[in-house]
Amino acid sequence: MKQKIFSILGVLLAFVVTVSAQTQKRPNIIFILADDMGIGDLGCYGQKLIKTPNLDKMAGNGVKLTNMYSGSALCAPARCSFITGLHAGHGFVRNNFPLPFEGNIPIPKNAQTIPKLLKKANYATACVGKWGLGYPGSWGDPLNQGFDHFYGYNCQRHAHDFYPTYLWRDRKMEQLPKGNSAKTKKAYSHDLFTKENLKFIEENAGKRPFFAYMAYTIPHIPLNPPDLGQYKNKDWPNANKSYAAMISRLDRDIGKILQLLKDKGIEKDTLIIFTSDNGPYGKKIINFFNSAGKYAGRKSNLHEGGIREPFIAYWPGKIAPGRVSDHTTILYDMLPTFAELAGVKVTKPTDGISIVPTLLGKGKQKTHSSMYWELAGTQAVRFGKFKALRSKSKVELYDLSKDPYEKKNIAKSNPEVVAKAEKIMKKSHVSSDLYPIKSLGESFKSVNIGKDYKSKTKTKKKKHGKKKKGKRH
Fold first, then answer.
1. Gap between the Cα atoms of 423 and 369, Å rounded
2. pLDDT at 473 over 50
3. Is 432 inside a domain boundary?
4. Total domain count for the chain?
5. Which domain holds residue 183?
6. How many CB atoms lie within 10 A of CB 163?
7. What pLDDT is attached to residue 94?
8. Quick one: which of 49, 5, 86 has its CA closest to 333?
C-alpha cells in the first residue's frame, strides 16, 4: 500500500514539475508601441539631440532590428495589423475611418487576435493606452477581443487630447480630475498609463504569464507635455523642445518598467519589445531631428519613412546582448511570434511569420516572399530587393539594395519587375466596401456599422464634460 502511495505521489510530483516547467517556458510579453515615432528618434538609431538612455541600454543588452516595418503608415490600420496578424489587404481596419460618435470602425467578433490566442495559454492580458479599433459596446471593444483589462482611449480621436476629462476603464467611463485640460495640466494621460502598466505587472508578477500591450500615445501631436525637462533651456523652437521632452518622458517610464521587472525577480522571464506604429509627423520636426533617418516619406505615406520603424527586443538570458539583425520583418509578424512563445497554435490565417529564431539567434528563420501595404488608395509591396508603390495607375519602383532612400524610380527600365509587383498587389488586395482602391475600379459603399459590428454587451457611461472634436490624424 505504501509503495502504491509513494508511486502515486511520485507521478503527481512529476506532473507538477512538468506543468511548472511548461509554465516557466511561457514568457511574460510586454509590447510597447510608441505613437508617430520615427526610426531616427532614438539614440541607438543615430539620434543626436534627444536622449533615450533606457531604450539605448535595452538595445545594447538585447537585439536591434534594422529592417522593421509597420503594417501601415497610419495609426488604426497599423494597430489592426499588429493585433490580428493581417496585412492591410486582408485587414478589417485600413484607415482612420471616423464615425459620427465616439469610436472607430471595429474589428469583428470572429477576428483572430493576439490576446485571444494567449488566453488559451492562461495569460493575463491587458491593453493600456490607445485602442482605436472599435467603439464602446461594439465587438471591437478590447474586452471583446481577448483582453481581461483595458484602460485608456477607446476612440482614435479622443486620444488626441492628452489632458482628457475621462478615460475608459474596462467598460466604464472613469472621470479624471475636474477641470483637467491642456491649460490646467492636472492629469497627463501618458503618466496615468505608466501607473496602470506598473500596477498590472505588480498584480501578475510570478502568478501567471501576462501579456501587456502598452499602447502609448506619445510623441503624437499635440506637443504639450507637462514640462520640457532637460530641454527647457535649449535654443530650439518650443514645439521641438516639447517633442524631445515627450520622447525622453517615454524613455524614462520604460526605465521604470525595467526596474520593476528586476525588483519582482521576473526580468529573465519577460520579453520586452519596443517599436512604433508608423513614421513621424510634421515636416519641421522631422527635418530638425532627422526623425525618419534618411528615408523618404513620413506618416500617412508608404515610402520608407512612413513605415520603417525602430525595433528593440530585450530578454535577459534568452536574447544575447548587443546583437543587430538585418532580418526584414513587419508588425503583423508579432501574432505568430507571440503564439509560438506561448506554445499555442494559430488557428486562422495570418500573413505573419514567427521571428522567434531571429529574436533568440537560434534556428532557421523563414522569410517573406513579399510584404504588402495599402492606404487611402495607394498600394505598396516589397519583394526581395525591390519595392513598388502604386498611386492611381502610376507605379514607382525602387531597388532598395542600391537605393534605400527611394531617390531613383526605375519603373520604366524594369517592366517585368513592375508586372510582378502589380501581380502581387492584385493577389494581396481583398476588395472592401469601406476601403476602395480607385485604380482598381472600386468605389466606396456605406456599411451598417451598428448591425454588423455591435455587441450585446452593455457599456456603462458616466456623465462627462463636452468633448472637443478631434482632427483626423
1. 13
2. no
3. no
4. 1
5. 28-370
6. 20
7. 93
8. 86
- Residue 197 scores a pLDDT above 90: yes
pLDDT, tens digit, for every residue of 320-368?
999 999 999 999 999 999 999 999 999 999 999 999 999 999 999 999 9
Nearest-CA neighbor of 217 among 187, 188, 244, 196? Answer: 188
Q: What is the dihedral of CA 214, 215, 218, 224, to 10 degrees?
A: -90
Give the sheet arrangement for strand 371-375, strand by strand: 371-375, 378-383, 386-391, 394-399
Looking up residue 325, the CATH number of its domain turns out to be 3.40.720.10
Cell 505587472 appears where?
Answer: 201
* Residue 232 identity (one-letter amino acid): K
Residue 135 φ/ψ, nearest 5 degrees:
-140, 160
Q: Which residues pair with 454 in a beta bridge?
A: 138
70 in any annotated domain: yes
- Nearest CA among 377, 341, 48, 90 for reference residue 211: 341
Under 8 Å between Cβ of 63 and 323: yes
Which residue has cell 471593444?
141
In a domain, 451, yes or no: no
- Is residue 129 within 8 Å of 153, Cβ to Cβ? yes
Contact 219, 246 (CB under 8 A): yes
In a domain, 430, yes or no: no
Give Cβ neighbours of residue 51 (< 8 Å, ≥ 6 apart): 43, 230, 244, 248, 251
